[in-house]
Design brief:
293 residues, alpha/beta, Rossmann fold, 2 domains, 6-stranded parallel sheet, 3-stranded parallel sheet, 10 helices, 11 strands, binds nicotinamide-adenine-dinucleotide
């Protein structure tokens, strides 16, 4: 049975560091990092995530404002709001909760966010810097995965990494980060031939697919490291809510072969929010020209 990569422990350590640095910023510079989250419409999952981000900010000693807009909000109204937030000195991080309603153009909205305030790491500017391997506000989930690997001293250099999924928020950026750390990366997706064979070559396997438990034990090379990004609901009438959350990896069989594996929940998901906190602090420092002590 592989060792558990515990997102609770690692995210707690990241958040403790953030809280300590936030307290120092307040004491030495009288600055409180502020995250501004924009939520359009009534999607329950988005509402849940935004609430959680606000609560975590407050626990860190940071401020968080949630700007809620109705589903019917126009592109123009949201664009104006982003411009206004870009110009406000007391807004350090801008987060537009995705997905936006269908009538809106996400691409055009995200493009407008000041890269210095782009705490999700989704703007052209941040993606360009990530591609080039420059210091930047990195997207939170991929950045959290690297933190997990580093915390457990899992070597990346020279390893064969396989990333399943090529989304802009997880699959593509994590494959870049792994390449920057000198892994040899194979990217797989829904049209990949013989996924099982390719996955089974991986020293480090990252599953970011969004399909419940499709990566089975026989996709896993003996002794490999398995990072499960998926968050999927499956019906479970033994639970009060009527469902439970599982990853993209079938944990029971995969953990028999992996040397290290992330659980779902309790793995990557916790890191995403911790890295968002870190990005908000970093954005605040950059805007105020304050170096990390
Ligand atoms: P996405 O839908 O944007 O992308 C999914 C990718 O998986 C696509 O590139 C697609 O080609 C690939 N894919 C789909 N079916 C496949 C199949 N049968 N075989 C191989 N590849 C296949 O999803 P996303 O936004 O990258 O999210 C992926 C999963 O990660 C979701 O479950 C999501 O909820 C979860 N997620 C978790 C976190 C976190 O913090 N833990 C953050 C973001 C996303």
């Amino acid at each position: 049975m592989g060792e558990l990569i515990d997102g609770k422990i690692v995210s707690k350590a990241v958040k403790e560091d953030v809280a300590k640095e936030v307290a120092e910023l307040a004491e030495k510079h009288r600055i409180i990092p502020t995250l501004y989250a924009v939520l359009v419409g009534n999607d329950p999952a988005s509402q849940f995530y935004v609430k959680k981000k606000k609560k975590t900010c407050e626990k860190m000693g940071m401020e968080s404002v949630v700007h809620e807009l109705p589903e019917s909000t126009t592109q123009e109204t949201l664009e104006k709001l982003i411009a206004e937030l870009n110009s406000k000195k007391d807004v350090n991080g801008i987060l537009v909760q995705l997905p936006l309603p269908k009538h809106m153009d996400e691409y055009e909205i995200i493009k407008l966010i000041d890269p210095m305030k782009d705490v999700d790491g989704f703007t052209h500017h941040s993606i360009g810097d990530l591609y080039l391997g420059r210091d930047c506000l990195q997207p939170c989930t991929p950045s959290g995965i690297i933190r997990l690997l580093d915390h457990y001293n899992i070597p990346i250099e020279g390893k064969d990494a396989v990333v399943i999924g090529r989304s802009n928020i997880v699959g593509r950026p994590i494959s870049l980060l792994l390449q920057h750390r000198n892994a040899t990366v194979t990217m797989c997706h829904s049209r990949t031939n013989d996924l099982q064979y390719k996955a089974a070559q991986a020293d480090i396997l990252v599953a970011a697919i969004g399909r419940a438990e499709i990566v089975k034990g026989d996709y896993i090379k003996e002794g490999s490291v398995v990072i499960d990004v998926g968050i999927n609901r499956v019906e479970d009438h033994t639970k009060d809510k009527g469902y439970r959350i599982v990853g993209d990896v079938e944990f029971s069989t995969a953990s028999e072969r992996a040397s290290y594996i992330t659980p779902v929940p309790g793995g990557v998901g916790l890191m995403t929010i911790a890295c968002l906190m870190e990005n908000t602090l970093k954005a605040c420092r950059m805007q105020n020209n304050i170096q990390q002590t």
